[in-house]
Specification:
InterPro entries: AAA+_ATPase, ABC_transporter-like_ATP-bd, ABC_transporter-like_CS, Mo/tungstate-bd_C_term_dom, ModC_ABC_ATP-bd, Molybdenum_import_ModC, Mop_domain, P-loop_NTPase
Number of strands: 20
Number of helices: 9
Domain Mop: 291-357
Bound molecules: adenosine-5'-triphosphate
Pfam family, one: TOBE
Protein name: Molybdenum ABC transporter ATP-binding protein
Strand order of the largest sheet: 7-8-9-3-10-11
GO molecular function, one term: ATP binding
Order of helices and strands: EEEHEEEEHHHEHEHEEHHEEEEEEEEHE
Length: 362
């Protein structure tokens, strides 16, 4: 499934002018409040008629303002999950789910049992939404949307109304949808951690325009993008393979840049694990450090050094075939003579890779 979106729309002083293509997987629309994320999703869903635009889903033109074509929302075969779930309070969970199925062509789509199992909602079926936690409600809302057999799932900040614990509870389910159902998802978020964990592709919006769009690893490790992400949040994603559970409570992962040790990650050997490594948690050395407590040292090559407005600099490294971002001072960059092509070692503290940021491959 590919999604092509080109839109122009105006609301008073706000002008939206976007153009992007999304490959299969999870496409995160990321940006600050008011950057236009919901407007894009609403136009894709068919809830908003843009002044001009063309939207193609899986080869089908659902909107082409030039040709006067606008498929109504109910004929676009898209599932929509809102921030607040919007379940029917008088129906049980099972009835809410079956309501979704009602919109699907007969016999099509993923069976109810499979969805119930994937989302872990088997024990909730006879309950009503009023008695469910926020996280449970969202899982049911997601199940209902999937049962309508959509070809694209639209999720507008589906976790925003949940506390951190509930978010952490739902994220693995979203990963399973991405990985096991291969359901394409357009996912609105302003949380870098969520994007780093779930997204395949990131479309970064600012004031109604696409600042950049590309593979999650490339976008998150782009030094030019770091100020938009927020310097504290800037960081790359790496994918490493779990190789062993060690006796001292650490898990060993293999990456092309070197071994990575983390506090116990509960997954079988062979699992691909996505790690988020914040730029501020990476130190650089021009020789392999010894006599240092940090366990995780990856070999890489400098690709870009970008000075910030203050004394800081962002350095992008190539580590294997992935990118890693380090935030250091400009003084250190000069002292180490960092420039593109220079071989370096990135030192990561094991504790810097938070459990909440450990996710499946995607
Ligand atoms: N129906 C509308 N009428 C007038 N202005 C609107 C309407 N919908 C959105 N806007 C304006 O368009 C801009 C983009 O809004 P949009 O909801 O798409 O942003 P967003 O990135 O999704 O923001 P948030 O993260 O806060 O939901 C905002 O300035 C908003 O006030």
């Amino acid at each position: 499934m590919t999604l092509e979106v080109a839109l122009s729309h105006r609301f008073g002083g706000f002008a939206l002018e976007v153009d992007f293509t999304a490959p299969p997987g999870v496409t995160a629309l990321f940006g600050r409040s008011g950057s236009g994320k919901s407007t894009v999703v609403n136009a894709v869903a068919g809830l908003l008629r843009p002044e001009r635009g063309r939207i193609v889903v899986d080869g089908e033109v659902v909107l082409d303002s030039g040709a006067g074509r606008m498929l109504p929302a109910h004929r676009r075969r898209m599932g929509y999950v809102f921030q607040d779930g919007r379940l029917f309070p008088h129906l049980t969970v099972r009835q809410n789910l079956l309501y979704g199925r009602w919109f699907a062509p007969k016999g099509a789509g993923v069976p109810l049992d499979r969805i119930v199992d994937l989302l872990g909602i088997g024990t909730l079926l006879e309950r009503r939404p009023g008695g469910l936690s926020g996280g449970e409600k969202q899982r049911v809302a997601i199940g209902r949307a999937i049962l309508s057999n959509p070809r694209l799932l639209l999720m507008d900040e589906p976790l925003a109304a949940l506390d951190e614990a509930r978010k952490a509870e739902i994220l693995p389910y979203l990963e399973r949808l991405r990985d096991e159902l291969s359901l394409p998802i357009l996912y609105v978020s302003h949380s870098v951690a969520e994007v780093a964990r779930l997204a395949t592709t990131v479309v970064l919006l600012e004031a109604g325009r696409v600042v950049t769009a590309g593979a999650v690893g490339d976008v998150l490790a782009d030094p030019a993008i770091a100020p938009v992400m927020g310097l504290r949040e800037a960081g790359a994603v790496l994918t490493a393979r779990l190789v062993a559970q060690e006796e001292d409570g650490l898990t060993r992962l293999d990456h092309a840049g070197g071994a990575i040790f983390l506090p116990r990650v509960m997954a079988p050997a062979g699992t691909e694990i996505r790690l988020r490594i914040l730029a501020r948690d990476v130190m650089l050395a021009v020789e392999r450090p010894s006599g240092i407590s940090a366990l995780n040292i990856l070999a890489g090559v400098v690709e870009e050094v970008r000075a910030g407005d203050g004394p800081g600099a962002m350095v992008r490294l190539r580590v294997g075939d992935e990118a890693l971002l380090a935030r250091i001072t400009q003084r250190s960059a000069r002292m180490l003579d960092l420039a593109p092509g220079r071989a370096v070692f990135a030192v990561l503290k094991a504790v810097s890779v938070a459990q909440g940021d450990v996710g499946g491959r995607g």
